[in-house]
Specification:
The chain is α/β, with parallel strands linked by helices and 276 residues long. It has one domain (10-274): 3-Layer(aba) Sandwich (Rossmann fold), CATH 3.40.50. The protein is 35% helix and 12% strand. The protein has helices at 10-14, 19-24, 26-33, 58-66, 84-101, 112-123, 153-162, 170-173, 226-236, 250-255, 268-274; strands at 43-47, 70-73, 105-110, 128-134, 186-191, 210-215. The chain has a 6-stranded parallel sheet, sandwiched between helices. It starts with 9 loop residues before the first helix and ends with a helix.
Length: 276
């Protein structure tokens, strides 16, 4: 996967300047977005990306509430990165929401938030209904230095400064569950013009319960992208245990670009062998 990674250039980073335009496009498209499939009160947990708070997903959560979902923010302030102590709090929150609603929780994660979502699905498959990730680089191996990974260099350097004990964190020293397709239905939404995370890190191998949905847009604008709003609402609206691929209907193919199929993630044994 590393050899195929899309190189992030200055031009790619500049494409992130589209985010305000994507946000402005929400208002005129909102009447159409309200015609998207609606929920029946299903609980949904939305996890923000690295350095972001629930404020970054406020508009998305408000839209989903209007589409008749019970939507929750993660309520833990700014997301500092992957940490076992934060994961444990998220795990408790999912169990709490399950007890409150007496039904499984759908988890939507933007960027690094999507990595948390996938770990939750692996460790709590009886509590998680489905996972939707937005530009989440879950196909990265164990954390590396900024010079070794195709993620925006400045972002990685900030990450390393905020997480000086990353090498000793229990979550990161275990098996990288986020790389393996979850045991519940999973949708990865990604953009090939993502200027923060190389898109090849953001797609899964296709299987009966895993899909990739390709959109046009920036990384930072994903929580305000109208096409992503529609895709999330449509995915969440599916009856439990009746999940179907997003591109099965012709009008989806008309608005959304053909999606990639990732190479199968390497097993832990294969990864260990590659280092010898």
């Amino acid at each position: 996967m590393a050899e195929q990674a899309h190189k992030l250039t200055l031009g790619s980073a500049l494409l992130e300047l589209r985010a305000p335009i994507e946000a402005l496009s929400l208002l005129p498209t909102m009447p159409l977005l309200r015609m998207a499939p609606k929920g029946d009160g299903q609980p949904v947990l939305v996890i923000p990306g690295f350095l972001a708070t629930d404020n970054s997903t406020y508009v998305l959560r408000r839209y989903l509430k209007r589409q008749n979902y019970n939507v929750y923010g993660w309520q833990m302030g700014r997301n500092p990165g992957l940490r076992d102590d934060i994961y444990r709090k998220l795990e408790s929150r999912v169990i709490e929401l399950y007890g409150q609603h007496q039904e499984k929780i759908s988890v939507v994660g933007w960027s690094l938030g999507g990595i948390y979502a996938r770990v939750l699905a692996h460790r709590l498959p009886d509590y998680v209904r489905q996972v939707v990730t937005l530009g989440s680089p879950f196909n990265l191996a164990h954390p590396k230095s900024a010079s070794e990974v195709d993620i925006s260099g400045p972002i990685l350097r900030i990450y390393e400064r905020l997480n000086p004990n990353i090498a000793n964190d229990e979550l990161l020293n275990g098996e990288p569950l986020w790389e393996v397709p979850p045991p519940v239905p999973s949708t990865s939404i990604y953009s090939e013009s993502d200027g923060i995370a190389a898109w090849r890190y953001c797609v899964d191998p296709i299987n009966p319960h895993t899909e990739n949905v390709r959109v046009t847009g920036s990384h930072t604008g994903m929580t305000h992208n109208p096409m992503i709003y529609y895709a999330i609402a449509e995915r969440l609206s599916q009856p439990q245990d009746q999940w179907r691929p997003f591109e099965a209907q012709w009008f989806h193919r008309f608005f959304f670009l053909p999606a990639a199929n990732a190479e199968p993630a390497a097993t832990a044994e294969q990864q260990a062998g590659n280092h010898h």
